Amino acid sequence: MIQKSTSSGGFLAVFSSPLYTKKVKPFIHFFSMLAMTFLGLLLLTFVIGRLMPTDPVIAVIGDKAPEALYQATYIEMGLDKSIITQFLYYISGVIQGDLGTSVRTANLVTEDILNYFPATLELATLATIFGILFGVPMGVFAAVHQNKWQDNMVRLFGLIGHSAPIFWLAMIGIVIFYQHLDWVAAPEGRLSVMYEYTLTKVTNMVLIDTLLARDWGAFKDAFAHIILPASLLSYYSVAYLSRMTRSFMLDQLKQEYIITARVKGVSENAIIWKHALMNAWVPLITVIALTYATLLEGSVLTEIVFSWPGLGRYITDGLLAADMNAVLGGTIVVGMVFIFLNLTSDLLYKVLDPRAR
């Protein structure tokens, strides 16, 4: 009895120790939240797949297949099992990277996503970079000139960015920059035909692959194809980031440490760019991460207008063709991107702000 009590006490002492509380417990909480969020995502996509009016068996074999083939396929797909068993099979398949076969392309959904997702990743990444390079300085500029004409111009620019439909901006951009000025390439994919079949694909991101191959002609052609859709897509991120940066900067410029810095004679540029902006970066990191995730999943219209072979277009084409494996597979990838970027922004928040630790 004494030995049992000692063992139990030692076991409890581990969980009450400072090392467990400060180091181990946060990691357990982090990974448990990650697992629960991912499980919720899988449950949501599973329910959506079962609630859709399309018959998954008919989507695979067609509506003119004999009854015997229908029943055999029904059993092979596991649809005769209980709903809980189907969900467990679904989780097991996703964990192993099995998202099913696309009815429209006849390829594994995982293979299709590996081909389509890099195009969206490249487009959204460039648009996010443009958003940071232009949106953050514009927000700082607006905050410094609060309620003046400079501030009103930045706010008007942001309002237009939130209000104007992206497909309308895309068509206007094509008419101006391609048809009249001839500054960009034709809105037909990522590369011209003369380069598309000669480029060695390493990452499936054409700008990076052309740099790796040192094919400067192909790089110039790829840049001419991506610059217009990336710039138009970045209009949203520029508008949003400028508005949020302005808000964060106004909050920082009212803090007591700014008054103290001015009393000490610190230059205004140092106060704005070194002190206020550095503190504004802490909440701004989360905004940038969410903006990036939004561009990754919200570039559908841009991809359609510019014939960009990205994930958004792949999901849309799958939805129109009742290809639920493609739709749900793409949805899972988008959801995982949101989860990853949210967790990354939380970690960066703690790195940049010691108080959050």
From TrEMBL:
It comes from the Bacteria. Belongs to the binding-protein-dependent transport system permease family. InterPro entries: BPD_transp_1_N, MetI-like, MetI-like_sf. It is found in: Cell membrane. Keywords: Cell membrane, Membrane, Transmembrane, Transmembrane helix, Transport. The lineage of its organism: Bacteria, Pseudomonadati, Pseudomonadota, Gammaproteobacteria, Alteromonadales. The chain crosses the membrane at residues 27-48, 123-144, 156-178, 222-241, 281-306, 326-349. It comes from Psychromonas aquatilis. Residues 117-349 form the ABC transmembrane type-1 domain. This is ABC transporter permease. It is a multi-pass membrane protein.
